[in-house]
UniProtKB/TrEMBL annotation:
Record-annotated DTW domain positions: 2-189
Keyword Nucleus: no
Family matches, as InterPro entries: DTW (IPR005636), DTWD2/TAPT (IPR039262)
Similarity-based family: Belongs to the TDD superfamily. DTWD2 family.
Top-level taxon: Bacteria
EC number(s) stated in the UniProt entry for this protein: 2.5.1.25
The protein's name: tRNA-uridine aminocarboxypropyltransferase
Record keywords: S-adenosyl-L-methionine, Transferase, tRNA processing
Amino acid sequence: MSRAQCPRCSRPSERCLCALIPNLPSRTRVLILQHPSEVKHALNTARLAALGLSNAELLIGEVFESLAALLQQPSHHACLLFPGEQAQPLVQFAEQRNELPLLLVVPDGTWRKARKLLYLNPLLAALPRVALPEGLQSRYRLRKAPVPGAISTIEAIVAALNTVEAPACFDELLKPFEVLIDGQIEAMGEHTYQRNHGKQDASS
C-alpha cells in the first residue's frame, strides 16, 4: 500500500515541505522545462523552485507545443540557462538588456536528457545561452556531480536570480531543498550515507 502524498509538493504526507516553501516575487520570469523522467524522482528540485517563485512556471514533457507563444513575449528577453562554449555570462547578458526583465528558460534533467530537450525543440536551441559564474559549490550531498561545478536545478535558479536581481536574495528558496536532503540522509541511515557519500563530502 502506497503512502499518502501531499498533492502540492508531492512528498509523503508526514514529510510535507509546504510549510517551508516561500512565495517569492521576482522581476525575472522563470520557465522550467522538465523532462518526464524527473517527475517521480525523490529529489525533484524543479518542482520546489516552481512552487516557491510567484513568477515561475513548470512544464513537463519532451516537445513543448506552447513554447513559441511563451518565448515571443515582447515584455521579456528570453535566454537559455545552459553552459557551454556558446554561453555568455548571465550577468553580462542581463546588463545589456536591463530595460526589460529576463525570461530565464531552465531545462531540468540529466545532461543527456537536457540536450535531448534542445534537440527536440529547435526554438530552445536558437535562444541565446547564458551560464552561471564558475566555482559554485552544490549542497546536493546525495548525487555526485557529473562535471565540476554542476549544481541542482533549484540551486541554479537561486544563483541566477541572486546574480541578476541583486541586492535581492532568493536563498530562502533553498530551505525546503536542504530539509529534503537531510530527510533522505536520515532515511538511508548515517552509516550508509557515510559509506556512499562521506568521501565525497570530505573532498568538497
